[in-house]
Amino acid sequence: MKMQSSLLPQLQQKMKLSPQIIQSIEILQLPILALVEHVQQELVDNPVLEEVVDEKKDENLKEADDTPQTAKDDDVKSDEFDKLGEIAEDWREYYSQTNVRRNNLSDERDQKQEALENTAAKPMSLHDYLMGQMSLIEVPNHLVEACENIIYSVDKTGYLASPLEEIVQSLEKPLPVEEVKESLKIVQALEPPGVGARNLQECLILQLDKRDPNYQLMKELLINHLEDIEMKKYPLIAKRTGHSLEVIKKQVEFIRTLNPKPGSIFCDETIPYVVPEVKVEYIDGKYEVFLIDNSNLPHLHISAFYKKFLGENGTDSTTRQYIQKKIESAKWLIDAIEQRRSTLYKVACKIVELQKNFLDEGVHRLRTLKMQDVADIVGVHVSTVSRAIAHKYIQTPQGIFEMKFFFTGGFQNVDGSMESWEAIRQKLGEIVAKENKSNPLSDEEVAEKLLASGIDIARRTVTKYRRIMRIPSSRQRKEF
Fold this sequence. Notes:
Elements: H1 19-28, H2 32-45, E1 49-51, H3 55-64, H4 69-90, H5 94-102, H6 105-117, H7 126-134, H8 141-151, H9 164-170, H10 177-188, H11 200-206, H12 215-224, H13 226-230, H14 234-241, H15 245-255, E2 278-283, E3 286-291, E4 300-302, H16 304-310, H17 317-354, H18 356-361, H19 371-378, H20 382-389, E5 393-396, E6 399-402, E7 410-412, E8 418-420, H21 421-433, H22 443-452, H23 459-468, H24 474-477
Parallel strand pairs: 2-5
Antiparallel strand pairs: 1-4, 2-3, 5-6, 7-8
């Protein structure tokens, strides 16, 4: 049988998202700060897009400008025709050509100067801080390299991340392990106290003051009874050390003031900046929803000049095609932003309507809610609701929350009503907060108290929620 390849035409239908739909989906799920950045970039890339200037600012600019209006119109028209002529020649290089001509050197210097003045200084790292101290003390020449290697082997929490054997192997000039240990002691004597430790026990011991009369006792507690301190077995520690319970409690209280992560003070993690996009206010006996008008988000419209220019005769086809393409892109962007506002407002209104009890009384009245429920009411797909609330925040009388906070599961109470997981966790926290600290409740007893209030959950569920909320066990919560 002879085998051969051939080309055959074939008709088929496919479902495919248009570029407009993809753009609309992307804009819908952008948080406000990312949307502002996206719009600013579009203003740079698309010449037919213009920002609507505030009327008050516009009036101030007119009063400050004494140039005759007719002269200014002639200059603008001349500039616009120059731009269009260049687009007709080679519109693909339009931006690079016009931007170079448009920006003069003085403006460029001003922008650079402004950027320098408004750029935050780089925070000092732990390694820089330690190396700075190294330059101020006398270190034997043959130990300098080992000290530097040890410093750069310290992780962001302040602990030595590499074994001494690896540090020995990384040295260009080999040193015996004993001299590397001496180098480690030099590093451990630097600030902050506890830096360069190899474990928690060593970290805490390094922070003790040898001049303290209780130094030996605290060192003994850290070496032999660290786990017992964690479990609050104070009577057992007192019995084994021969000291009174009060003395042990006093020393443990001081040990708890020590820093288990000395390098954390140099942590340069940025704190996320939250900007709520929706605001809920209680007005005339009901909750009103407002979209917060962010002043940084430009109000867009399409340039009237380019619209008019398309209607004039004599425009070459390349220029006309380019302008039409940019106008369509601008329309899609404006429509997508407006669609985003509309969808976000509708979803927010339904959340407020369905979570009214939460707004009135707090988290313990948060009801179970699924995205599908809101999607059915609003008349959109559930994925649209998911994108609309992604990374967006709402300001309510109860505080600022991420919008996905209001969508939570739950279970059925003894009386048949639904209870959200968040409400259960809050009640669990309230029970623990009101317990007798000298005789704290076990997880089984907490489950019994929840059952008495109509919430029937297992002990293992209580344990899981307690760990999620970072509540210590009953043994660790006990106070003597």
